[in-house]
Amino acid sequence: MRRSPDQRDDDLMLREGARRFLEERCPWTPTLPSPGEEDAVRREMAGLGWFAMGLPEEFGGGGADALQALALVEEAGRVLLRRSLAADVLVVPRLMRRGFAGLTALAPGLAAGAVRFALVSGDPAAGGLSVAPGREGVRLRGGGGLALDAGAATHWLVAAGEGSPNGAALLCVEARPVPERRLIDGRRGAVPPLDGLDLPAGAVLATGHDALAAIDEIRDCAAAALVADAYGALAAGLDLTVGYLNQRRQFGQTLGSFQAVQHLMAEAFCDLETLRSLMLWSAASLDGAPAERRRAAASARVVLGREGLAAASRLIQASGGIAMTEEYRVGHVYKRLQVAAGIDGGTEARIRQLATDTLSPKGRPDDEASAA
Amino acid sequence: MNGRVDAFLTDDERAFRAEIRAAIRAMLPPDLARRTREGIHLSREDMARWNRILDARGWAAHHWPASAGGPGWTPIQRFLFEAECAAADAPPLSVFGIYLVGPTLVAFGSQAQQDRYLPAIRSGAEFWCQGYSEPEAGSDLASLRTTARRVEGGWVVTGQKAWTTEGHFADLMICLARTNREAKPQAGLSLFVVDMRAPGVTIAPVVTIDGGHSVNSVFLDEVRVPDDALIGEVDRGWGYAKFLLAHERTNNAQVHRSRREFERLKALAAARPGPDGAVLDDPAVRRRFAVVEAHLAGLEATVLRVLVDQTEGREPGPEASIVKVIGSRLQQAISELAMDVIGEDALTMPDAAGGEVAGWTERHLFRRVVTIYAGSNEIQKTIIARATLGLR
């Protein structure tokens, strides 16, 4: 494990190459790209090796670590790339290490850009997902939640029965046609119709404790990626805003010279860097003890949903009216953050999780108290 | 203990921590730990005692270079040492001698000054105070008016210093004074050692809103100091003062103290009866603790980012500029939460409540200072906006 990003020669090459590619091939514009254009960019990314680099070496991977995968996700966040990279550069390549045969068979396709994953978990409000014996092998029951890019994916990685080893199962399901929903930030998601779906037994990658451990890892990896994406979006938004504030003049002076505006931006910077610290902790903990990994991911998501979103709102406030227009990027940064804050149960669910994980259970004194 | 940011540490660093933890638990007298928990302004005797115990192990000046009597630890090792001291409720080391004066003398003092002053700082035999702020020079420190006039064989210092923490029991003051009226405000300042028992030094206590006495006004009336009281070169004092601030930024975060207080507060909330079970059984209270936990982890991770860079020989990135702002706010958030956990018992005058809640109210009141001192948060934000973000 290493603890600092951007220190190795190949780190810098990767980040700079990614930034150049993304700014040339998919700079942010208010107009949404067509699915055809998105597919073309995707193939070019595969050509650059983005989906292969994180795969284990026995599957033709380049042995890139989580920090490098997250650097790509962060760079994609800077241009507000509509199609998420998280599953294909970070989550699934790492999951391949567990050696699930149903998944590793897809490694060549993933590396070539032909296989694309979406992460699907149950909708807790609808009682989550469960697996029962079925006609062909197994049958899924219950509702899935909103999953990013589930319509563009070729495969859904489905987490069922979370929370208890008895019912837990991780499945890899070939995607079906699904009505897409346009999210407020221009990304697309879908609620995969899983209730009553019959699947061959081979779709089940893992059950019981194995499934639970894999589902936990998927969740924490996805959280790290969500935070990296949000940080990238915010950092680019902050750069844009600082540039604007140093140009735009009112009352005969630049907006950036007003202390009230300076302090707004300093607050945003404090929140931004705290978010990045938590993302780096989250990345470093991916190789460590599950309990710390879980705490890191939850902490990062709590700060994303609170301070991250607040920082995005400060960018709008400091920019003024222009940031209220659909034509200007800063409002889209805010929407990106709002989606990140609200997806997968949202910020409050992470706060509850963190409370459960770090505070003594109801009705039981804290260890420290009994020791004192 | 919950809430550790361990993933940044190497195996060697974890082994180092285990060794330090065991040693500190064995060295720390229980009565010192109790007084550290219950009070906020420790006596000189208590601080000196712990200083002496650490010095016997060579750990008192833990962040000085080995050539000056430090243990030669990396920035991460120092962080772990401080974390373990805080977790054990060890008294804090004197900010001024260990953190401020020692490194300043190591960097800019003469060999004779180092030989004269450093051993007594390490052993806790001499205490220092800082003579920077003045009644008319707070955030705008460079406008200070205390002057040092050249005379035969030395200097004569005259002026008034404000907010002098520990000045009432300090032996020596590191004093910033104007030596050149012609130069720009920052360019005409010099750094001196002033003996607090010299004729012309008068100390007046200032009682703070927590009811305690830790700060003072210090009047310097024609105080004669010898030639060798000047640290470094004349008119260069501002640069020396700033050098130190830049190297001690992570100390201002007070991350270990916050972690320790937060863990103690959790225990307190789990033990105190609330409307339905313990205070900590209330979902609204649990939510607030969880949010502070996330912020505390954010601070710990940010400080470690800075220290990892320093340990691996790189200049820290721009995140170093935020630790004072976020660390001070978090200290206040924890003591604010404590007031709600303790409830009405926190509203009665100190020592009336006693026991497990002792110290929290005074700490909460005094804690307002942390967003003001060491460069107020408004000054910090202006620096971030201008120097880091480039707003103009």
From TrEMBL, chain B:
GO cellular component: plasma membrane
Gene3D superfamilies: Acyl-CoA dehydrogenase/oxidase, N-terminal domain (1.10.540.10), Butyryl-CoA Dehydrogenase, subunit A, domain 2 (2.40.110.10), Butyryl-CoA Dehydrogenase, subunit A, domain 3 (1.20.140.10)
Top-rank taxon, per record: Bacteria
Pfam families with a match to the protein in the record: Acyl-CoA_dh_1 (PF00441), Acyl-CoA_dh_M (PF02770), Acyl-CoA_dh_N (PF02771)
Keyword terms of this UniProt record: FAD, Flavoprotein, Oxidoreductase
Cofactor requirement: FAD
Domain Acyl-CoA dehydrogenase/oxidase N-terminal: 10-124
Record carries keyword Oxidoreductase: yes
Domain Acyl-CoA oxidase/dehydrogenase middle: 129-208
Domain Acyl-CoA dehydrogenase/oxidase C-terminal: 235-388
Molecular-function annotations in GO: flavin adenine dinucleotide binding; oxidoreductase activity, acting on the CH-CH group of donors
Family per similarity comment: Belongs to the acyl-CoA dehydrogenase family.
Protein name: Pimeloyl-CoA dehydrogenase large subunit
